[in-house]
Amino acid sequence: MKKWYKYSLNYKDNTRYFPKDTTFEDHKRSMRGYEPDKGYGSKEEFFKTYFYEAHPRHRHYHDYLKRHLKKGDNILSIGSGRCANELLLIEEGFDITCSDFEQPCREETIALFPGLRFIRYDVTRAPVESKVDSMVSLSMFYLFDADQLAGVFKNISDSLKPGGNFILDPGGAENNLGTRLIDEIICPLEAWLIKILHKILKNKNCVVAKKEQGYRTTDAEIMSIAKKAGFSLYDTEHKDHLTEFGMRSVILGRMPRGVVELFGRAVPHVRMFAFKKER
To answer: What is the CATH number of domain 23-173+219-244+255-277?
Structure first.
């Protein structure tokens, strides 16, 4: 497990370091707000904006979840955010309750989807009150260190009925040589080069800001922590070979798509795990 940082140009002030998000308000600022926009004009616009034209990981999530969740099961999603994946599955007949610290654009979402069930829930604190058949977490576990992960997996295990399923994408590629090269050399170097170019060509002053994103884990670390919490792995799948290698780097992103996909196979952004509660 290794801390993971992102780099950007800060034109507002001289702040050069931003800590990891720990609250909904922190995450809201990182995501540049969760304000209502055209996506809340209709169901069609919602799915177009937040699913079909959003980050490609959402399609991978949808395909995987449909294969591993059962209609009729009581399913809880944790860290649901805007609930785009969950709402599309609900529209297709799955019984899903969403949860998070807060529900972004709650009134606008419920106006479009009156059947949405949402609860405020912090998985780091305790299991849910009523056990469920399956649980889902998409792109959230990168926020937790090893001790927190162990506690979270325990709470999830205690929230599931015997034989229940837990479907997980930790969020981001694993800790390996490829991600260390991107995180520690390519991205910070690019940020400094762009800063210099903006100063020379546009006479714009800024600083390179470093933000603590969370943690990169290996697949083995995820499976080991899950096993200690009473889970067995029954399926895994890696997808999205463009994001880490091509979308995070300006230079790498300009390379031919085939080249990006080839090298991106070493750092797949989506890592799906399907666990079953053993006891």
So the answer is: 3.40.50.150
Residue 217 burial by Cβ neighbours in a 10 Å radius (0-12, 13-18, 19+): buried
Q: List the domain boundaries for the chain.
A: 23-173+219-244+255-277
Put simply, whether the predicted model's pTM sits higher than 0.90 gets the answer yes
What Å distances lie between residue 107 and 23, 69, 235, CA to CA?
Answer: 21, 28, 37
In the predicted model, what is the mean pLDDT of residues 176-203?
A: 93
**52-59, long-range: CB within 8 Å, 24+ apart, which pairs?**
54/84, 55/243, 56/240, 56/242, 56/243, 57/139, 57/169, 57/239, 57/240, 57/243, 57/269, 57/270, 58/84, 58/85
For strand 132-138 and strand 231-239, is the pairing parallel, antiparallel, or unpaired? Answer: unpaired
Write the pLDDT tens digit of every residue in 3-59: 999 999 999 999 999 998 887 787 777 776 778 889 999 999 999 999 999 999 999
